Amino acid sequence: MPLYRDEAIVLRTQKLGEADRIATLLTRGRGKIRAVAKGVRRTSSRFGARLEPFSHVDLQLATGRTLDVVTQAVSIAAYGEGIVGDYARYTTGTVLLETADRLVVEEKEPATQQHLLLAGALRVLSTGEREPALVLDSFLLRSLAISGYAPSFGDCARCGEPGPHRAFNPAGGGMVCSSCRPPASAMPAPATVTHLAALLTGDWATALQADPRTRREATGLIAAFFTYHQDHQLRSLPHLDLSSDSGALGAGGR
């Protein structure tokens, strides 16, 4: 079988037989793939814990007829070590993994931007550099943008009239002018719109200045936007830790 190497983040795993496991991987060069790790559930496995969710690994794989086969695994970063022991980080991390799994639809189609975005989000989450809710909100907006669902927080999402505008509508694509505003549009505070734009562009200097009320309102709008464009809620959302004052996804989307 032909061999190839790629970097990958383990999104999820499932048991196969008595000792094997199927890993769903988001690779840097080949997008999402599913591969068998033989004997990984044995205590003597040479893969150890390197093929667990949240792991960033350098893999050698053999191309299979239906599933590829992992033949080597070298750890790049064990993000799980800084995530699984903290409930807020863990529940946020599971949403990150499920989101990437959901948004990268086609297997073996390059998804380099999604891979890099997920790796960066897991790194920041694992170190505690930023609050889990902020990491998640920014990740969701940027993942949607990469997938072709970028919201507009400046010009009108429908007609392009220069902003700022007062109304936000998920079906409309973000902020909309008074002429394009559909019924039941939200009317977020200007500070919330600024915060949303900062999360989308990765402007952390601005995003970190937002107060808890602004963050909560932004979280609700992100939840509504994500749910509209993905049709249904993520399975991991009900387990998300919502105890932070800054809020977390799901506060306004359920």
Low-confidence stretches: 244-254
Radius of gyration: 20 Å
Q: How many structural units, i.e. domains?
A: 2
CATH topology of the largest domain: de novo design (two linked rop proteins)
The largest sheet, given as strand count, sense and whether it forms a barrel, is: 5 strands, mixed, barrel
CATH class assignment of the largest domain: Mainly Alpha
Mean pLDDT across all amino acids: 91
| Helix/strand order, N-terminal first | EEEEEHHHEEHHH
The CATH homologous superfamily of the largest domain is termed: Recombination protein O, C-terminal domain
Q: Quaternary arrangement of the chains shown? A: single chain
Distance between the first and last residues' Cα: 47 Å
Pfam families: RecO_C, RecO_N
Family: Belongs to the RecO family.
InterPro entries: ARFGAP/RecO, DNA_rep/recomb_RecO_N, NA-bd_OB-fold, RecO, RecO_C
Protein name: DNA repair protein RecO
Provide a short characterization of the protein structure.
This protein has helices spanning 87-103, 112-127, 132-146, 190-201, 204-207, 212-230, and strands at 3-16, 20-27, 31-37, 55-62, 68-78, 167-169, 174-176.
